[in-house]
Amino acid sequence: MVFFRYENFIRSINEDHKGNVILGSVAGSVFISPQNKKISVNINRQDNVGFTGIFKDNQNALWLCSENGIYKYANDKLLNHFKTHKGLVGDGILCGMQDKEGNYWFGTNGFGISKLTNEMFTNYSTVNGLPEDYVNCSFIDAKGNAWIGSGRSGAAHH
Questions:
Q1: Mind giving me the DSSP string for the chain?
Q2: pLDDT at residue 152 above 80?
Q3: Which of 20, 77, 137, 140 is most buried by its number of CB atoms within 10 A?
Q4: What is the span of the domain harbouring residue 143?
């Protein structure tokens, strides 16, 4: 077993379509190549950003959830940075996922969930039936059901 030492508190791990592993930490993110080489992630001022979740969509783009919104990253460059001024319910994003229809869902640290469809956000909270506005993890099961985990209210699915 090979251990790669990265000097930050790791909060998320995933893999891109090239086989590079991406580590999200409390102070930025980094790719680790299949040869265990550290490769910079091309996101401006990212060493001041805590990355909380990473997922890959059906187009092989990486979505990096953070305390500073959502970063969409593909082909070695930042494609978009979504924040509240673009319709996101809150900038503290803890998790994300893509459903079978191609919509993106993002759980927040106390503001509910944002759904991204065609570059437009729809936001949901306890007012819309969520068990809690703190959504710290998410998952799409084999049947296409969306599951969320919350801080105090357990899990729910749709």
A1: ------SS-EEEEEE-TTS-EEEEETTEEEEE-TTS-EEE---TTGGG--EEEEEE-TTS-EEEEETTEEEEEETTEEEEEE-GGGT-S-S-EEEEEE-TTS-EEEEEBSS-EEEEETTEEEEE-GGGT-S-SBEEEEEE-TT--EEEEESSS-EEE-
A2: yes
A3: 20
A4: 83-158
Strand ranges across the sheet with 69-74: 51-56, 62-66, 69-74, 77-82
63 in Cβ contact with 57 (< 8 Å) = yes
Instruction: Answer for the pair 88, 105: CB distance below 8 angstroms, yes or no.
Output: no
Total number of domains constituting the chain? 1
Asked if residue 26 belongs to a domain, the reply is no
Is 8 inside any structural domain? no
Cβ(82)–Cβ(91) below 8 Å: no
pTM: 0.89
Whether 78 maps to a domain, the answer reads no
Q: How far apart are CA 114 and CA 13, in angstroms?
A: 22
pLDDT value, residue 3: 58
- Least Cα distance to 147 among 133, 14, 136 occurs for 136
* Residue 43: inside a domain: no
